[in-house]
Amino acid sequence: MTRRPSERAIRLLLFLAAFAAAIAVATATGHFLTPERWEYSYVAEQLLQGRGLVYEYMGTKYYFYGSAVYPLALAGVLWAGGGQAWMMVAVHAVWFGCTALVLYALARPLFGASAAVLAGMLAALHPGGLVYVGKLHSQTLDVLLTALCVLLLVRLRPQTRLARAVGTGLVTGLAMLSRATLAPFLALWGLWLVWKSPAARAAAVRVVAGVAVGAALMLAPMVIRGWRMYGRLIPLRTDTGLNLWYGNHPGASGTSHALGSTTPVLEGMPKPLLSQMENQTRNEVEVNALLTAAAWDAIRQDPAAAWQRFVKKFGYFWWFSPHTGLHYPASWAVGYRVYYALLLGLAVIGIVQAWRSGDSSRRDATVLVLLLAASVSVIQAAFYVEGRHRWLIEPLLLVWSAAGACRVAARTA
Prior knowledge:
Layout: H1 7-28, H2 39-48, E1 55-57, E2 60-62, H3 70-80, H4 86-111, H5 113-124, H6 127-132, H7 139-154, H8 162-178, H9 183-195, H10 201-230, H11 240-248, H12 271-277, H13 284-301, H14 303-318, H15 330-356, H16 360-382, H17 387-391, H18 394-412
Antiparallel strand pairs: 1-2
């Protein structure tokens, strides 16, 4: 009789598989010892040099550009490791392994051991996640925090202790600091929990309030920092205007590259707007307002074209844009298309199976993930879309892909 591995052994094997795959891919691509640098590296270096969380971009000093969490983590690792960037790649690999464990923990009570192991293995081999381990980018951390948020929110009930709700709020606040597009999802979750609990509405409101308090405590330092610097409320980051302009200026492709070319969209920015943006007397808040106004002007001037762009970007989010695979070998893009189409089909089967099962836990978890998928895709389509934006939530869909695969295997056995 074959002895089944213990839960601890399964989790350890999943973590090691994901960690080893991440290190192997980073090494094979040449990014383990020399990881690909992004703006976060500059911010981390500025912090280590005593200049604070600042990013100089197109003539403007940004103190609230992008993620507030990852540059701090990167600076901490560089400081502890004597400036060795490969150590951050190793940390990424750990985060990547932890994501596989979170998805296993999410799938186990919903769909059983087989689906949970498969979900963990799919996460351990996710192409987008593996590629980003070798980049000094917030993506790996964002995916982990997003998955952890969903796991913790799925486990909340109206009867949940207030302390646990506040703890969950601290995690969700950290996730919002790292990826602000999660904020609408968290609001939708709160409304959904209250709506689905008519017999315990007061208790549900108490839990939602606890999560909100925890999130507010996590966000408070950045909010206070923004108020002290500019005397106004800074909504987590000041590059939203730039991101809105990317996807909504006249002739926008919907991505960060120009329509019908591989040229970055900023290289085609109209000179009058560019000169205003680079005006040395403007601070980041004023530049953000300038670009936001320019984007909204384009939307108001041609609402039909703006709506068409939105629909196009929404399609890009869930499928592929003309610029998909631009920075990768062509064979990778083809392989990923096949992989994604298969997993998306299996996820649909898993979602339908979860709903038809009548199991309240499965249904609740499915609703939450669909709310996340809908809110993130709609918000991203309102701005601009790159492949990595879907990779924020794609690993979560792997849980339902695994459930769908197990369903297909059971029916064909």
